[in-house]
Amino acid sequence: MNKTWNNGAWFMVLPVLALVAFNAVIPLMTVVNYSVQETFGNNIFFFEGVKWFEEVLHSERFHAALLRQLAFTGTILLIEIPLGVMIALTMPRQGPWVSVCLVLMALPLLIPWNVVGAIWNIFALPDIGLLGRSLNGMGFDYNYTHQPVAAWFTMILMDVWHWTSLVVLLAYAGLRSIPDAYYQAAKIDSASRWAVFRYIQLPKMKRVLTIAVLLRFMDSFMIYTEPFVLTGGGPGNSTTLLSIDLVKIALGQFDLGPAAAMSIIYFLIVLLLSWVFYTLTMRSEDQS
Amino acid sequence: MARIELQKVAHSYLARPAGEQDFAVKELDLTWDDGGAYALLGPSGCGKTTLLNIISGLLTPSCGQVVFNGRNVTEERPEQRNIAQVFQFPVIYDTMTVRQNLAFPLKNRHVPSDAIAARVTEIAGMIDLDSVLDRKAHNLSADQKQKISLGRGLVRSDVNAILFDEPLTVIDPHLKWQLRSQLKKLHREFAFTMVYVTHDQTEALTFADKVVVMYEGEVVQIGTPEDLFERPMHTFVGYFIGSPGMNVAPVSVEGNRAILGGYAIKLARTYADTPVGAKLELGTRPEFIRFAGNGGAKDGEGLPVTVKRVDDIGRFKVAKVELAGVPLAVVADEDTVIDGDEARIVFDPDHVHIYADSQLLEGVAQ
Fold it and tell me: Chain A contacts of B95, Cβ < 8 Å?
């Protein structure tokens, strides 16, 4: 029997290929292109190899920004995940208050990033902002425009305020999927509140919490607008996170080569950390 | 083990029930003897699970008292009542091994660890889980998971009663039978008080010494499987138990005769004064009606019927007939020959019951 070979169907993927090419591959490739070249203007480029990558990887400025970024992301994850789970646990399981709580929780998520930054910028001002004045009124010496510690405190508080809701909503969805029989069985087995959390609620929330950690990790690692509007990276360089530093290099100093190399390294770090985290949690799932 | 009494217990899920119809369980008095195997049988939504949760303490009844061995436990929580309950869908602690699952209730009660280990091994042997003790519980099959749920109840040696809420719903049919007989065996060995909720009559009748039949929030009959079959106290019991269910037909009664569509049916008892204005019905099981002359009689004894349909079920036949326009089911031997659409049927007077407003009338023996 003769089988006809017709590869015409491959043309069917052309639209998708074009779409992906234009919105992802080609822009990414222009960055790759910049990252291996040097320019002195007039659209004249020289090939430089991996020079920019070496320079970025050895630059103390990059190390400092990366360290700040890791500190920021680590801190907000350590606060938002447990806090979100705690709030989700205290939310009602049924009744009219469920929708009230859900709407209240969703509100911060609806506010645009730059508006959040502007709100907190004013809210925390030591002379006219409610938060700033109150703190100073209580005897704290608080001025986020001059003190790095105060700037960090405000930046983290802002992120917690903006994004804890996301963790709450995901954790709440996980909790709601637990059948009543589990709680009833736990009562009959005289399990303590902690045991119910540890052996029923936490295992059932594991998948959604994995998603929550991933989302919060990626988002906070790439965060730009909110801290930029709040502090502009200052005072000094104390709140200059990776993305803020990147914009300073690319648009402030117009060093396209180093900025492009830094973008690619930045991208690879996000990708690598996400992959490692995801693989580890999924592997532990398989083993159990 | 305990003797469990429900005294004037009623429950409504509404805060302010307006009337009878708002009660999931209507006021009832019930006693579960120590060591008895009971089945709580009824259609979905009749209040079985509500009643079970009242016994276990997951629900506090709107009124009435729950008494264990003479002690009022109405206000006590499930863990204080020391009850074990197995749910419809297996509840297991996913992250634990089978061994840890079985040890969990004992650990929570601060039993010394060597006593826990010994008890867990013993129980695992009883329910055939010894080979999987160190596996993660969530990888096991549904029937093994359900055994873990049961095992968590059994490990507590001082448990007052074990309650089952339709525990075999998610189990494969061939394993259902196996699990059921294993349960019966465990019950014979350890004689714990056992209450088993189900809507499956076969399950109830094979499992229990006594069956409690519920209908619309009320207990309509408590009895052995034979009682339920031979003397249903309520037309619902007759209809719900047995396959096909009891024949129920409107009649009028004159002493020891029931008149059905102009035909007189002889009764074994005399009903002198039937309640005035009550709806009178005759109830008799298809098993207690026979065809005259093995299906061939066209005249002589019995009453003439029109045969509508005959189903051969294997070891017997089920015939749908009409007596003066009233449909009746008749169970006949396999070798009964029914040809044509006419036959004659004979009632067994000892098994013809009279109901007034669905309740069995006692009558007077002749």
Answer: 199, 203, 288
